[in-house]
Write a structure and sequence with these properties.
Layout lengths: L12 E4 L3 H9 L9 H5 L2 H8 L11 E5 L14 E4 L8 H11 L11 E6 H8 L16 E4 L1 E4 L3 H18 L2 E5 L19 E5 L7 E2 L8 E2 L2 E3 L4 H21 L9 H10 L28 H9 L14 E7 L4 E7 L3 E11 L4 E3 L9 E3 L6 E8 L2 E9 L6 E7 L11 E8 L6 E12 L10 H5 L3 E2 L9 E6 L6 E4 L4 E3 L1 E6 L4 E4 L5 E10 L3 E4 L3 E8 L16 E4 L2 E5 L14 E3 L7 E3 L10 E3 L2 E8 L6 E7 L13 H9 L25 H10 L24 H17 L6
Parallel strand pairs: 2-4, 2-5, 3-4, 5-7, 7-8, 8-11, 22-24, 23-26, 24-27, 25-28, 26-28, 27-29, 28-30
Antiparallel strand pairs: 1-6, 9-10, 12-21, 13-20, 14-19, 14-21, 15-16, 17-18, 17-20, 31-32, 33-34, 35-36, 36-37
């Protein structure tokens, strides 16, 4: 039977995924816009270029298809030396298709500029007589290209037509081994489109900002999370070809590198792309045992640098007698449950672990007529993925699992820094692919991100340690040490004393039984290159310096003493201007004390949290900017302002009032510990003299400067240079100071 064209109902529309605003901008500004390197930086491509240089894969030799309602402009300079073949069927040049092409295979704007063989399809023709042959008994045309990019959707159409499109395309993926990358719709509240956003065997793509359709499928198998991955573009039309380009880069490397050609199977490429995706960009990424992906951001943001390293680690097979590396991939067929044993070496730990298992759904030909084709779906194979502690190549207790009953992918993800499970400490572990049936091809990819760490321990077991509150860290730990202090024994509390300056990767203090206190004596400094977590039952005391980022798991007693460590600083013209950080704690009341250790010269305390304001001085130029309690959870946000040198009163200006404060406390004589910033001691040398005046003079400007607080970037606006009038005024003041003599504070 010859193929018959499928006539779309009037309400079945193909929608380009750009949005009206972008189309208007294209009309108003002809020619290619200036595109910043930002998105390519964000997805790790610049890091890959810096690592590999001229050896970086470019997608060369990887043929691709671009399915649109229009064709890219082959005369565009981004497409020089490329062969763009317009498949017959009514495809004309369109700006949308051109911009998709820029991101997919553009000579300077894509991470796969080596792609030079492109088929350009009209989406209607591709779905009907040209390729899929929907609404006929004809089998889909054989796909000769390695990647299909689809930056369009169908919504508000016939469910039966959409299901046939999905099943025919999944059939093509399984038969021809083509990587299909399809866009979600734009708009955070938009429903998931019928097509192609509900594919099983492809990758559906959103944007890092989350402004795309997302949630769970409702056609041809409900409850599956979409999208699978996101990329940092404004619209999904352009995020999708970024993923396609990354796929081309990986396919080229797999094709041309000995021993890893099996990675060209779409199950593997999908797994590698998703296993390499990052989650740090999102404040609320989550998964569960039954839901492998976040319902808005999927597996996370594309990162081709990480995915390349997974691919380059090589194929590693399941075995009960040998280990695999802590990162790698496999393409295999289920026969029984398969174990992948790996080890985290001594003196290291995996602060992040990501594993993805994917397999294709099988669409069969259910036609009763010889030579005919009718797609038939008889149910999804249900594979699971589990992670265990292990020893001697024998699995032990289970750490985590991914056991969705509806998805054809599973994802285990642990990230200690993001509070998504614990770090994998030195030892042996096992990944298990659980398969209830045999003969299912699957792709598995995994990545362990190592951090050189050492566990802190008590110097010696002593009576003091066993019975009371004190122990000391032995030696000086290196920067790769991981300080985890947890009181698991003593109900009346335990204390760790740090008696020497140390720099560590991370600090965590918690008391799972009684209070755990980290004591930093005056004169010692503990620096954390990552963050500082004060968990339930944890406290920090002493007069030493603690530098790091503070996290908190809350639920503390009213009498708990919490520590705020401030490290985020903005620097303008060589002068430290601001420290802006936030801290939250759940309390049942606003009474009790909130103590601040010295941290970069911050010290002080409050007894009533609700009433603090800019006038609260924390020492040496640091002022409490805001402290805002939540009426429901009693959570407090704290911003710390480090005033410009010379700003004695913390009003964000260096002006006459600050000069008068300095004059009133001018005391160049014997150093006095009571001399503080609010009296004019701007350089912390315990005297208030002409050197402090000089600092004030350098920054003197009666107009002040505007500090931008409350923004997520913690940025400070431009600090103007003092004008000539300001210099004249400060010179007069200087003369006044010199002629009046010394005024001492009594």
């Amino acid at each position: 039977m010859s193929a018959q064209p499928f006539l779309f109902p009037s309400d079945l529309a193909i929608r380009l995924l750009t949005g009206v605003l972008t189309l208007l901008l294209l009309i108003a500004r002809p020619g290619p816009p200036v595109i910043q390197a930002g998105p390519l930086d964000e997805v790790g491509y610049t890091d890959l270029l810096n690592l590999l240089g001229a050896s970086t894969p470019t997608g060369a030799g990887v043929p691709v298809s671009q399915i649109e309602v229009g064709s890219p402009n082959s005369a565009d300079s981004e497409f020089n030396s490329k062969v763009i073949t317009r498949i017959p069927g009514g495809t004309s040049t369109a700006s949308h298709a051109t911009q998709v092409g820029w991101n997919f295979y553009g000579n300077t704007l894509s991470m796969a500029p080596g792609i030079d063989v492109i088929q350009s399809w009209n989406a209607n023709h591709w779905m009907t007589s040209g390729f899929l042959r929907i609404s006929t008994f004809g089998e889909p045309v054989t796909e000769t290209q390695a990647i299909e990019n689809h930056s369009w959707v169908i919504e508000d159409g016939s469910d039966s037509a959409a299901i046939e499109i999905l099943q025919r395309l999944d059939y093509v993926v399984n038969r021809d081994n083509v990587l299909v990358v399809a866009a979600q719709n734009n708009g955070e509240t938009s429903p998931i489109p019928e097509t192609l956003s509900q594919l099983y065997n492809g990758l559906t793509v959103g944007v890092t900002s989350g402004t795309h359709s997302h949630g769970q499928t409702y056609l041809d198998g409900s409850g599956r999370s979409k999208p699978e991955i996101v990329a940092p573009q404004l619209f999904t039309s352009y995020a999708t070809p970024m993923v396609s380009a990354a796929g081309a880069l990986l396919i080229e490397h797999a094709t041309n590198t000995a021993g890893i050609s099996s990675a060209t199977n779409t199950e593997v490429i999908k797994a590698i792309l998703m296993a390499g995706a990052t989650k740090e960009e999102f404040s609320s990424w989550s998964r569960s045992t039954s839901q492998p992906f976040d319902t808005q951001f999927g597996s996370g943001e594309l990162n081709v640098f990480r995915s390349y390293h997974i691919l380059d680690a090589g194929q590693q097979s399941a075995s009960n007698s040998s280990l695999v590396d802590p990162q790698g991939w496999d393409f295999a067929t289920t026969s029984s449950n398969s174990f992948y044993f790996f080890e985290i070496p001594e003196d290291q730990a995996a602060s992040e672990f990501s594993a993805i298992l994917t397999w294709n759904r099988n669409i069969e030909n259910g036609s009763l007529f010889p030579g005919g084709f009718t797609p038939e779906f008889n149910g999804l194979e249900n594979l699971d993925l589990k992670l265990y502690h292990a020893g001697g190549l024998i699995p032990g207790s289970m750490i985590d699992s991914s056991e969705s009953s509806v998805d054809n992918a599973e994802h285990i993800y642990l990230n200690d820094s993001l509070d998504m499970g614990s770090l994998l400490e030195p030892g042996q572990y096992a990944l298990e692919v659980v398969a209830p049936s045999t003969g299912v091809d699957y792709g598995l990819a995994w990545l362990a991100d190592f951090q050189e760490v050492h566990q802190w321990a008590a110097s010696t077991a002593s009576a003091a340690w066993e019975t009371n509150l004190n122990w000391s860290v032995a030696g000086v730990p290196a920067e790769d040490w991981f300080a985890t202090l947890d009181n698991t024994t003593f109900v009346d509390g335990q204390k760790a004393v740090i008696n020497t300056d140390s720099t560590v990767y991370k600090v965590r203090v918690s008391g799972s039984v009684g209070r755990m206190t980290l004591d930093l004596p005056t004169g010692t400094t503990l620096s954390s290159t990552s963050d500082v977590e004060i968990r339930a039952g944890g406290a920090i005391t002493g007069g030493g310096v603690l530098a790091g980022n503070l996290q908190n798991e809350s639920l503390h007693a009213v009498s708990a003493v919490e520590t705020l460590t401030v490290t985020d600083q903005a620097q303008i013209a060589g002068t430290w201007i601001v420290v802006d950080d936030s801290y939250s704690q759940v309390r049942g009341t606003t009474t009790g004390s909130f103590d601040l250790l010295t941290a970069g010269n911050i010290t002080g305390s409050f007894s009533n949290l609700a009433g603090a304001g800019i006038s609260s001085h924390l020492g040496n130029g640091y002022f409490l900017e805001t402290l805002t309690p939540s009426l429901t959870a009693m959570a407090f946000a704290v911003d710390i302002l480090a005033a410009l040198e010379g700003d004695a009163n913390g009003d964000k200006k260096v002006e006459i009032s600050d000069y008068m404060i300095l004059v009133d406390h001018f005391d160049p004589g014997t150093p006095d510990p009571s001399h503080v910033w609010t009296q004019g001691n701007f350089n912390d040398d315990l005297v208030i003299d002409l050197s402090d005046y000089n600092l004030l003079a350098q920054n003197f400007d009666p107009t002040g400067y505007a500090a931008a607080f409350g923004d997520t970037a913690h940025e400070i606006s431009f600090v103007p240079e003092p004008g000539s009038a300001s210099f004249t005024l400060i010179a007069i003041l200087f003369f006044s100071l010199g002629s009046t003599g010394t005024r001492c504070r009594h």
